[in-house]
């Protein structure tokens, strides 16, 4: 075969290869994810928390000690590593965590789990995980569910209070509880003090809310009592609630007689 013929044959074959219909086209069909993505948002006190993760299912498999080995770093879900974002500094099991976004890794164990927050917040799996980027690493004790099992991996907030919550990792028969704390008083107290110092009449509702916050958070009870009395001086619509709060404040101060008198007045 002469060079000219070979060249023409090669061109013809290439034309056939790239002709329409030469290869099967992949249809643009959206299929459901094996581990559906989930975004969870929760406010604790004045702190906004976002959890972005994927939710694999049990599907008849052995989970911990099976498809999720003990003693190895886990992405805490599926696909991308779970991501936690905090709008303010928080504490996790007493460890200070600055505001920001973090990857949540874990090392499962039969009797103890290691919880890891890593500053590389966007990672696929745990393949690129590096311990040098850890912001916090601590241990917690898992709890075994005895009367139920959770099919899809779940992250949820429970026991939510003004200044704390439990961040629970739940899958199959295992719950991994992580205590979360926020400094709500550090955010609210300056606002209350500034509002009280500002000129102008305050509503009985504001006095009640401020006194309740101080009472609930074991702050300055004398101020709380002064605010209740200031609210009561204006014959408030919520006199019953304010007198009941006054009784509780006096009891916490150790004034039993005063507490009884305020309680009787509220009836």
Quick structural gist:
The protein is of the alpha+beta class and 267 residues long. The chain has helices at residues 3-17, 184-197, 204-216, 221-232, 239-253, 256-266, and strands spanning 37-44, 47-54, 82-86, 90-92, 95-97, 100-107, 113-118, 134-140, 143-144, 150-158, 164-172, 174-181.
Descriptive report:
Helix 3 packs antiparallel against helix 4 and helix 4 runs antiparallel to helix 5. This protein has 2 domains: 145 residues, no CATH class; 83 residues, Serine Threonine Protein Phosphatase 5, Tetratricopeptide repeat (Alpha Horseshoe), CATH 1.25.40. The protein is 30% helix and 28% strand. The N terminus is likely disordered. It is α+β, with helices and mostly antiparallel strands. Strand 4 and strand 5 form a beta hairpin.
Biggest sheet features: 6 strands, antiparallel
Return residue spans where pLDDT drops below 50 for at least 5 consecutive residues: 3-19
Task: Give the percentage of residues in beta strands.
Answer: 25-35%
> Strand pairing plus helix content: what structural class?
alpha+beta
Strand ordering within the main sheet: 1-2-3-6-7-8
User: Helix fraction?
Assistant: 25-40%
Shape: elongated
Query: Total helix count?
Result: 6
Radius of gyration: 30 Å
Integer count of domains:
2
Q: How confident is the prediction overall: mean pLDDT?
A: 91
How many β-strand runs?
12
Order of helices and strands: HEEEEEEEEEEEEHHHHH
Query: Termini, distance in Å?
Result: 113 Å
């Amino acid at each position: 075969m002469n060079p000219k013929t070979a060249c023409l044959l090669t061109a013809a074959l290439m034309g056939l290869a790239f002709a329409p219909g030469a290869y099967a086209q992949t249809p643009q069909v959206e299929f459901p994810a094996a581990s559906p993505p989930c975004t969870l948002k929760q406010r604790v006190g004045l702190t906004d928390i976002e959890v972005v993760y994927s939710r694999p299912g049990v599907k008849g498999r052995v989970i911990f000690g099976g498809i999720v080995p003990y003693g190895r770093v886990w992405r805490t879900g599926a696909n991308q590593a779970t991501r936690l974002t905090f709008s303010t500094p928080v504490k996790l099991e007493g460890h200070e965590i600055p505001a920001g976004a973090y990857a949540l890794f874990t090392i499962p164990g039969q009797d103890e789990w290691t919880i890891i927050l890593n500053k590389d917040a966007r990672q696929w799996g745990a393949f690129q995980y590096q311990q040098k980027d850890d912001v916090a690493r601590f241990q917690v004790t898992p709890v075994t569910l005895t009367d139920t099992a959770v099919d899809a991996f779940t992250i949820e907030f429970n026991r939510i209070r003004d200044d704390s919550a439990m961040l629970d990792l739940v899958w199959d028969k295992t719950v991994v509880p992580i205590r979360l704390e926020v400094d709500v008083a550090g955010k609210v107290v300056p606002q209350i003090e500034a509002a009280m110092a500002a000129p102008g009449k305050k509503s009985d509702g504001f006095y009640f809310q401020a006194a309740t916050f101080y009472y609930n958070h074991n702050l300055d009870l004398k101020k709380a009592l002064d605010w209740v009395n200031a609210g009561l001086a204006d014959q408030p619509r919520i006199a019953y609630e304010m007198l009941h709060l006054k009784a509780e404040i006096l009891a916490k101060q150790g004034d039993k007689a005063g507490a009884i008198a305020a309680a009787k007045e509220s009836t």
